[in-house]
Write a structure and sequence with these properties.
The chain is α/β, with parallel strands linked by helices and 220 residues long. It has 9 helices and 8 strands. It has one domain: Aldolase class I (TIM Barrel).
Length: 220
């Protein structure tokens, strides 16, 4: 599989303009990335720009804090799908997890998953805020909630993905859900290390740089 098909080409900064979103989509077309990942207000623009392609549209939900109500996340996810999103990345309620209110964390994820049905759901853990035991527990809850992916980070916290955390996640998931690494992955060689460790998707704003800075774009 080629590297481009692992990449969620991402633009989530709050100052992103409509023109920048269109550029993102055009880059995704040029390099045939698996998907683009944008804030939900830009889904209609992305859908129009990508209408004649097979590129997926991923939208973030409860981003970047994860601390809003479950009802708000459910509504945002439902609207994102209605607008044209084909994948959803939601942020876990970190405070509930650290409070050991595991039932609330489970309901938060499960309610969103039930709302979007077969649409892939990636749950963002924000590993920089969690201990090893909390990462393990979060992964177990994600499995119970039928999430499709566990994602490392928003890219908006103090640090992003780490190979150590990915190894913990992989060991806990045991192949029952996929893994998305995101946050600080900007080089081709770094992306390959994550894929070799067991990652199924890479979230990055540096996909174009990755593709241009290597003579070999094939992962395997």
């Amino acid at each position: 599989m080629e590297l481009n098909q692992y990449i969620d080409h991402t633009l989530l900064k709050p100052s992103a303009t409509e023109r920048e979103i269109i550029t993102l989509c055009n880059e995704a077309i040029t390099y045939n990335f698996f998907s683009i990942c944008v804030n939900s207000c830009y889904i209609p623009i992305a859908k129009q720009a990508l209408k004649e392609t097979n590129i997926n549209i991923c939208s973030v939900i409860g981003f970047p804090l994860g601390a809003m109500s479950t009802e708000a996340k459910v509504f945002e996810a439902k609207q994102a799908i209605a607008d044209g999103a084909t994948e959803i990345d939601m942020v876990i309620n970190i405070g509930y997890l650290k409070s050991r209110n595991y039932v609330a964390v489970l309901k938060d994820i499960n309610n969103v998953k039930r709302t979007i049905g077969e649409i892939p759901l990636k749950v963002i853990l924000e590993i920089s805020e969690l201990s090893k035991n909390e990462i393990v527990k979060a992964c177990e809850i994600c499995l119970d909630a039928k999430a499709d992916f566990v994602k490392t980070s928003t890219g908006f916290s103090k640090s992003g993905a780490t190979l150590t955390a990915v190894k913990i996640i992989k060991k806990t998931l045991k192949g029952k859900a996929k893994i998305k690494a995101s946050g600080g992955i900007r080089e081709h060689s770094t992306a390959l290390k994550y894929i070799e460790t067991g990652v199924d998707r890479i979230g990055t704003s540096a996909g174009v740089t990755m593709m241009n800075n290597t003579t070999s774009k094939s992962v395997f």
